[in-house]
Each structure stands twice: as structure tokens, then as C-alpha cells.
């Protein structure tokens, strides 16, 4: 894994809109080769 991880190179799944925009990245066979743990990463963007 490089210095800044691997998530920035991955395609996130759009979760929806409520108070902002929400995206999710789940572990896969591809991520398990770089990071050997099951995970769920959720990122939200809120405009103020």
C-alpha cells in the first residue's frame, strides 16, 4: 500500500442524499489483497 492508501483509487457506491451526499466503499477481493481486513468506509459531503 502506498503512503496515501488505496481508497482514493477505488469506485465508491452512492448511498443517497439526506443532509448531504453519502458514498460507501466495502471490502472486496481487490481490497483484501492490499488491506487484509473486512471494512466498510462511508464518506459524506455536506455543504454549508
Distance between the termini: 34 Å
Dominant shape: elongated
Query: What series of H and E elements makes up the topology?
Result: EEHE
Low-confidence stretches: none
Main beta-sheet strand count, sense and barrel state: 3 strands, antiparallel
Mean of all residue-level pLDDT scores: 89
Continuous helix count:
1
Strands of the widest sheet, in order across it, are 1-2-3
Coarse structural class? mainly beta
Strand tally is 3
Portion of residues within helices: 10-25%
The fraction of residues in strands falls at 35-45%
* Whole-angstrom Rg: 12 Å
Could you explain the architecture of this structure?
- It contains 1 helix and 3 strands, in the order ββαβ.
- The protein has 48 residues and is mainly beta.
- A hairpin with a 3-residue loop joins strand 1 and strand 2.
- The protein is elongated and about 35 Å long.
- The model has no long low-confidence stretch (mean pLDDT 89).
List the helices and strands and how they pair.
Blueprint: E1 13-17, E2 21-26, H1 29-34, E3 40-45
Antiparallel strand pairs: 1-2, 2-3
Question: What's the quick description here?
Answer:
By secondary structure, the protein is mainly β. 12% of the residues lie in helices and 35% in strands.
Key structural traits:
single chain; 48 residues; mainly beta; 3-stranded antiparallel β-sheet; 12% helix; 35% strand
Amino acid at each position: 500500500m502506498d503512503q496515501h492508501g488505496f481508497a482514493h483509487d477505488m469506485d465508491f457506491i452512492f448511498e443517497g442524499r439526506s443532509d448531504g451526499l453519502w458514498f460507501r466503499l466495502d471490502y472486496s477481493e481487490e481490497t483484501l489483497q492490499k488491506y487484509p481486513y473486512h471494512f466498510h468506509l462511508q464518506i459524506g459531503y455536506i455543504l454549508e
